Amino acid sequence: MNDKALSWQHSLRDAIRDPAILAQQLHLPPDSWPAILAKNCTPHFGLLVPQPYVARMQRGNLADPLLLQVFPQQAEAQMQAGFSTNPVGDLEKQINPMLLHKYAHRVLLLLHPRCAVHCRYCFRQHYPYQNVKSGLMAESLTYIQQHSEINEVIFSGGDPLMLADERLASWLAAIEAIGHVKRLRLHSRLPVVIPARVTPQLLQLCQQSRLQIIMVLHFNHANEIDAAVADSLRQLRQAGVWLLNQTVLLHKVNDDVPALVRLSEVLAENQVLPYYLHALDAVQGASHFAVADGTAQQIMHGLRSQLPGYLVPKWVREMAGMAYKQPLI
Ligand code: SF4
């Protein structure tokens, strides 16, 4: 195993799981700890944040936009009408627990049940990952093989880049062997939180594949992009990977025009196209991140006024059972 492979796996192993340790590392003012420390409200989805991401948080700032994305808060225990454990209808679109067929011509493979970070607003935080077994690989591949209309496969999770490169290579080879598949999308937050995940082996896999590889990253704030992240993005581009970004509009994290303009500008500097600005999925435990549609509309107006059209992400909401994500304006 080379240095980079070791380094990202060490970062996974050394990730912070205890809110008190994170608060200490960030020098949060002791008198304000009880308000935010609280407890891990969701036992199956406790605090998880790797050190390379913590390094980008501002010390002593309880309102740091990166901290707010990962720190469990008491508000997660609020039960809000309309919020559920299956907010976008994933369960109704299962071919099997590993394979979702939601939209025409593309399918989603949930390759790994875990992530390198627990984002408190995650729409899949209640997904029954315990049913995703490696034994479903053959059945899933047969389904894709038998559906010649499928031209794009999306590796998702959890986070598909939690797989070691050798496992990822087997999946990639299996998809490449299905002639009607033209594109492979990788939906991952790993290059955001642990940029060392972009290993030479991963780059080689992308570069040598017969498939067009598209990586959909997940940056919510410009502060998430530091020199190490920028370097990994450059390497991915050089390997021929198309880079897109999806952002979730989150209260107190990025729900203002300057924050989102800056994000689009920094993405542009790194040749990553802002693709979607998602309205929060109504997942149980995340209602405190919701932004009213009226506010979002004003934000979109501000973005259109200040950015060239290609740097304005599409504001969309995923609605269960619909044939595509719904454009909001
Ligand atoms: S990395 Fe993605 S799938 Fe994992 S917790 Fe965050 S939003 Fe959810």
Summarize the structure.
The chain is an alpha/beta fold.
Describe this structure in words.
The protein is α/β, with parallel strands linked by helices and about 325 residues long. The protein folds into two domains: about 5-75, no CATH class; about 90-325, TIM Barrel, CATH 3.20.20. The chain is built from twelve helices and ten strands. The chain has helices at about 5-15, 20-25, 35, 50-55, 65-70, 135-145, 165-175, 190-195, 200-210, 225-240, 255-270, 295-305; strands at about 95, 100-105, 105-110, 150-155, 185, 210-215, 240-250, 275-280, 315, 325. The chain has a ten-stranded mixed β-sheet. A hairpin with a 2-residue loop joins strand 1 and strand 2 (about 100-105). The N and C termini lie far apart (about 50 Å). The model has no long low-confidence stretch (mean pLDDT about 95). The chain binds iron/sulfur cluster. The site of iron/sulfur cluster (SF4) has 11 residues, from loops.
Q: Can you give keywords for this protein?
A:
329 residues; alpha/beta; TIM Barrel; 2 domains; ten-stranded mixed sheet; 12 helices
